[in-house]
């Protein structure tokens, strides 16, 4: 076997490795995979004396044949694994069907109810094996694909995957045992015993490939592909609640403001001696009446669009959006290396520490944490230009306000599609009441009853009385009526 240096570069960014070196490394990985898989399969088949004790449909002759041919099964399984690996490394890809399939009328049989049930159980344990292997297999697929020289967009065809294991188990079981009730039961037992071991089989192989420099950074992709990925958007925040609260309290730097914990958790936390937001809350001048809204300023969220216990929180965030205590603190005494005019700062953990005691609902505190994680990522992302990161820095409090606000039904007559639309629509209504002009496309949508429509548009009412198509809910007088008149839909 070729001796591979630990500095060999197999990354997809560099040149393609020599075929001999990559195949030598794949054979080394296969030796590990083969030894572990055969060990589990051998133990499973040798401890299967009870496999047919409760199955009266399997005759004693078939049970005796099964027990007497178990060593042959182990030997053929070994050969099948090696054969499938050699075919794949020689360039032959798996075709998505069992390798020993026969297409002849001689093999055509109707499944009985018992056989159909066994086939269903076999399908279930196969899916469980794939699910158990998923976490480690994704990284292994990428690394093996790089060694085989597969194009990036091509579907993974990994000779160490559960599909190849199942092919080998199926080929061996069907070749050794002719009775379908026997080979299906054997497959079910062996696959079931592989489920708890499959991840442990893949971990040493991944570790070896990382040590040899094969896509060592793929771990970030694996962490991003969680098996907790929600099926519905409504499950996202409960999932974040679970993930956040499973972190040990000593490492929750986004709540404790502990710099040591922040360094261990790789959470960027500003080294401040005091929390400027907590100081602003204790300042009597900060709790005074809100200033009059500037028509050109960012609109305030209507208090009617949130729960009553969140009103003081949103009012506080409104004040801090217009007069940020952190900005004033950094202008007066910024830590070393921090330029208050050019350095973006994650304000959310400090706001969480100041307002956390006023928020009774744990889910709302977790929502604030999630917003903090988002801005922590944005501020640390060097691919975002500094100018844009500084723009995101100014959006922290507005986005936190919208995230903290809980959705509730819109006031009667107003259709609200988005929280921001509700705020802007309410702002436009106040401007019209004060005699100002309404910004374009901000008038609230109102649903008029049929009586209100006829009173407001008498021509439509007259046409309806004369026999033309009139008001039918929201679809009044439009499209043009069959009487030949032109619609009176207002411009």
Provide a brief overview of the structure.
This protein has 491 residues and is mainly alpha-helical.
Explain this structure.
The protein is 55% helix and 0% strand. The chain has 491 residues and is mainly alpha-helical. Helix 5 (162-176) packs antiparallel against helix 6 (180-211), helix 12 (311-322) packs antiparallel against helix 17 and helix 19 crosses helix 20 (458-465). The chain is elongated and about 90 Å long. It starts with 18 loop residues before the first helix and ends in a 26-residue tail after the last helix.
Descriptors:
disordered N terminus, 3 domains, 491 residues, mainly alpha
Low-confidence stretches: 1-17, 408-427, 436-445, 468-491
Structural class: mainly alpha
Nearest-integer average pLDDT = 74
Please give the number of β-strands: 0
Count of distinct structural domains? 3
Instruction: Tell me, briefly, the overall form.
Output: elongated
Number of helices: 20
- Main sheet characteristics: none
Indicate the percent of residues in helices. 40-55%
How much strand? under 5%
SSE string: HHHHHHHHHHHHHHHHHHHH
What would you report as the Rg, rounded to the nearest angstrom?
34 Å
Through-space gap between termini? 82 Å
């Amino acid at each position: 076997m070729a001796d591979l240096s630990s500095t060999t570069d197999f990354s997809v960014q560099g040149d393609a490795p020599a075929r001999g070196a990559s195949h030598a490394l794949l054979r080394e990985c296969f030796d590990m995979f083969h030894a572990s898989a055969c060990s589990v399969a051998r133990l499973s088949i040798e401890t299967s004396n009870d496999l047919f004790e409760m199955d009266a449909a399997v005759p004693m002759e078939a049970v005796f044949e099964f027990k007497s041919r178990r060593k042959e099964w182990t030997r053929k399984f070994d050969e099948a694994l090696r054969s499938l690996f050699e075919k794949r490394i020689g360039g032959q890809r798996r075709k998505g069907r069992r390798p020993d399939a026969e297409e002849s009328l001689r093999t055509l049989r109707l499944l009985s109810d018992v056989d159909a049930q066994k086939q269903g159980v076999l399908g279930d344990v196969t899916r469980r094996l794939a699910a158990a292997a998923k976490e480690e297999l994704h990284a292994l697929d990428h690394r093996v694909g790089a060694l085989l020289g597969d194009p990036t967009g091509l579907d993974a065809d990994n000779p160490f995957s559960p599909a190849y294991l199942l092919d080998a188990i199926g080929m061996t079981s069907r070749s050794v045992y002719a009775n379908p009730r026997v080979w299906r039961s054997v497959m079910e037992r062996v696959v079931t015993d592989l489920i708890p071991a499959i991840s442990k089989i893949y971990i040493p192989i991944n570790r070896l490939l990382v040590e040899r420099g094969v896509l060592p950074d793929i771990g970030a992709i694996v962490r991003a592909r969680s098996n907790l990925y929600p099926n519905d958007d409504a499950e996202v925040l409960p999932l974040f609640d679970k993930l956040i609260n499973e972190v040990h309290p000593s490492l929750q730097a986004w709540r404790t403001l502990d710099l040591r914990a922040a360094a261990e958790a790789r959470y960027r936390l500003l080294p401040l001696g005091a929390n400027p937001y907590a100081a602003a809350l204790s300042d009597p001048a900060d709790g005074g009446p809100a200033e009059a809204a500037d028509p050109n300023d960012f609109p305030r969220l209507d208090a009617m669009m949130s729960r009553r216990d969140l009103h003081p929180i949103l009012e506080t965030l409104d004040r801090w959006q217009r007069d940020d205590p952190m900005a004033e603190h950094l202008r007066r005494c910024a830590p070393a290396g921090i330029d208050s005019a050019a350095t973006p700062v994650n304000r959310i953990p400090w706001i969480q520490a100041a307002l956390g005691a006023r928020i009774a609902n744990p889910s709302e505190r977790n929502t604030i944490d999630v917003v903090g994680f988002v801005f922590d990522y944005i501020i640390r992302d060097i691919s975002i230009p500094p100018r844009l990161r500084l723009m995101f820095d100014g959006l922290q409090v507005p986005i936190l306000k919208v995230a903290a606000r809980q959705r509730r039904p819109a006031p009667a007559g107003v259709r609200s599609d988005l929280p921001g639309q509700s705020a802007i629509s309410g702002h436009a209504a106040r401007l019209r009441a004060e005699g100002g002009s309404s910004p374009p496309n901000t008038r609230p949508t109102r649903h008029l009853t049929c009586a209100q429509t006829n009173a407001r548009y008498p021509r439509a009412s007259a046409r309806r009385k004369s026999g033309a198509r009139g008001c039918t809910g929201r679809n009044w007088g439009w499209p043009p009526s069959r009487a030949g008149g032109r619609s009176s839909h207002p411009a």
